[in-house]
Amino acid sequence: MDDLDEVIGEFLAESLENVDRMEEDLLALEQAQQPSPDPEMVASVFRAIHTIKGTCAFLGFNHLERVANEGETVLGKLRDGQLPITPEITNTLLSATDVIRGMLTAIETTGSDEGVEHTWILAALTALSGAAPAAVPQLGALLLTAGELRPEDLEEAVGQQARGDARPLGEVLVDRNAVAADVVREALDRQQTVRAGGPASSIRVDVALLDDLTRLVSELAEVRNQILQPSTSQPGREPAGAMQRLDVITT
Predict the structure, then answer these.
(1) pLDDT tens sequence across 50-91
(2) Which one of 46, 109, 177, 186 has the largest count of C-beta atoms within 10 Å of its C-beta?
(3) Angle 151-162/87-110 helices, nearest 10 degrees?
(4) Are 151 and 124 in contact (CB under 8 A)?
């Protein structure tokens, strides 16, 4: 457990530095107001969030991994020129850094990334990347994508629901003067259109490929357990061997 605590401590220190770097670069991108983002700066933010995602996945912080993964997807599209740099995108990514920082603080104090509200930022990031998180996009994601709603207003409304407000999200947003009632109605109409269209919810995957993936995941789980519970019979040798095996499987 001492070894694991040390690994988590190093992860937290490195991740907080990466979050600070991400925030600085995103603010610089926002202030530059250029139609095409600085590729080096975008690459820097991408590397930072990619590092956070990979390490927290290894340590089992699944909520943090999901937020980092969605942020990485948006940044990948920015890096590849598939998305322009806009205030909406930079604001949403900055909100994501706030959520990530909150989860890191939770891990530091409680040992878990649970308890930090993050569904709203997942919806916002997924809407920007163009991949629906479910068959029917959430109302908040639709409003964010259309530029009709600020991420912070959505966060506050979702928090109000979490504190016991049983009203639909649209009604809460209108009551808070975060968005006009007619805009909510239009978004709900678009949501109904998607629902009626019945988008595909499955794909065909070659069985052999799926078998290979399942085998690799199983091997990764074994290596993860070896690293988290190193052998005491041969100090210094088992972790090194496990890391070498991890490198082979990942490659």
Answers:
(1) 989 888 877 888 899 999 999 999 998 888 878 888 887 888
(2) 46
(3) 40
(4) yes
